[in-house]
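Re: folding output
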Amino acid sequence: MKIIADLHLHSKYSRAVSQKMEPETLGLWAQKKGIDLLGTSDWTHPLWLKELESLLKEKEDGVYQLKKDNSKTSFILSTEISSIYSQGGKTRRIHNVVMAPSFKTVNKINKELKSKGCNLMSDGRPIIGLSSIELGELVWSIDEDVLIIPAHIWTPWFSMFGSKSGFDSVEECFGKFSDKIYGIETGLSSDPAMNWQIKDLDKRSILSFSDAHSPAKLGREATVFQSQTKKSFSFNDLTMAIKKDKKSRWKISYTIEFHPEEGKYHYTGHRNCQVRQSPKETKKKGTICPVCGKPLTLGVMHRVEDLAESKEIKVMEKENQVGLVGYYNQKDPQRPPYVMLVPLLEVLSESLGVGPNSKKVQTEYERLISVLAPELEILTKTSLDKIKEIAGDRVAEAIEKMRKSKIVIEPGFDGVFGTVKIWKNEKVIKLNKNLNKQEQTTLF
């Protein structure tokens, strides 16, 4: 049994988030995407928490479902908290995903946060003045089963390893609680292969979630859990899988990844001056904008190379029956592999030659998930012959290229998302996942 989980997203009570991000709509879109388990998001916000408590019922220990919905979508109580504080003579801005096993625990945490002067009404993702260490102290004094997962750990401005306001190690950030950080979230601008270079993460699970601000963005990144013997899934099962507990009957099977080049902080740059630099270029040209003389925002790829200790990472490719390439750590085969996807709306947009929000693309999207399968199944499992039969040659060709990463991407930088092209004058660029510049090993 496999469970596709997306546990980091936001509600309508967070800033710059669609008003459609509410429980019933989330459940509906999870079915469209083929997601089994969602994070509720934003349980620190009083109004959102009230909605969650009225609309959800417990299905398994710590796992919930909608009371008035027959869907198979389940929910975990998760939220993102932004900590802004001073440590080591530097301002720190760290985002953490916090997952709780019950509403009882959630209410106790919220009460304690408010007692410390935290304004929980201001935003679904509250900004608090507590350090990551103090946050850990607070939540684990209430319930030791709470999980803290550092969010999008490479984002320059708001993350544990961020170049602007982060740290150089998990221990620097979490101090005495560093051993309780069992996993990290890659974020859109990094993939597992980049994180495999960081020795500090060797024993920690690498997780990927969407950080969706609108329903259509759900599942753009996700983590797939698998069990050979168990069909139920509880909060404890989630915890044991992330901990890599030997007694766990669940494990992380693989992660679903956004192409990191498409993330908005992959390369170094300055968006106002349209300056974009690879790590190699930055080493030659420096970190000052050649146009205006201001500091460039260091990209995730540059920051990873700064902290990398394991330079001998070699990624191995292996295709499944439908031509989807999985990427494996050849040096450490126990680490879960990952796959790289382009969202179906983007695939259809380029195939049909119109925007992803156009009526034509939206209509075709709804038709395909109705006739074929949920989105993630179409992208990863449905045969190309079946796709060709239902959607036509061009869509089938696009999905074939996407599955093999035979696409063209202009990397994102300084808050500007990268752009993906499946066809660009019919020129194909094979993305190189090997960070040590060696030739790629394949399993064909």
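--- second protein (sequence, then structure) ---
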Amino acid sequence: MMSTPAILHKPTFKSLLFSPFKLNQAKPISFHRFPASKSDFFSSKNKALSKNMTELVRMSAFGGGNGSDSEESTGLFQREAVIDGLNEFQSGLLADGLEASLNRLSKWLVAAVFGAVILWRHDAEAIWAVLGSVVNSILSVILKRIFNQERPDSTLRSDPGMPSSHGQSIFFTVVFAILSVVEWLGVNGFSLILGALILAFGTYLTWLRVSQGLHTISQVAAGAAVGFIFSIFWFWSWDAFVLKAFISSLSVRIIVIIAAAASCLGFLVYVIRYWFRDE
């Protein structure tokens, strides 16, 4: 009598979880006819669900679409975002005013140029220029009190506007920068072009005071003229008699250096108290 071979069926976790049949009801069948189990069915369902969720996230992030359509939509969305950003930046500059921003920064630009020339020269005449800038500012305050001319109606500032202190300071710095370039390079084509650019830059910054309604044309022109003339006189006095006294007299050197140091300190305090407050 032949014994029937025992077929062992070892249950797995998935078969226990998903199979509706009891363990003792499992029957041996051929492998090639074995149907798809419910574990495989649920596994494929889970994979399909995961894939669908991924597609939904991708569609929500990039505006939908599959394959090349999704990539094209994504690229179009990014290009539109860049264009919109540039348009907003340009419209912001035009609405808020590029000239208004440059006008607010003009005092910082002039101070930076003046400081750069001082550090580049680092000589006795540079010290004299520091003193000249302070005297020029004091002269502007005195002239404003003498003329006591109101600013344009569009401005909210109540202090007098004649002459323009910005124009006066700008053109004092312009003359100093041009003279420094000529002393450095001599009189040639390059120095003339560079001097013309410096003059044009200073003129533009001065004109911004008119375009922003802070001064009238006459106030700006008067400030520029006073700054230009005073700067010429100040540096002429250096070459005429101050330089000789500075070299020959120790007391003159001490006085000039101490006065220049005090001027720098006073200017720093003024910037902290007023310029940063305005910003």
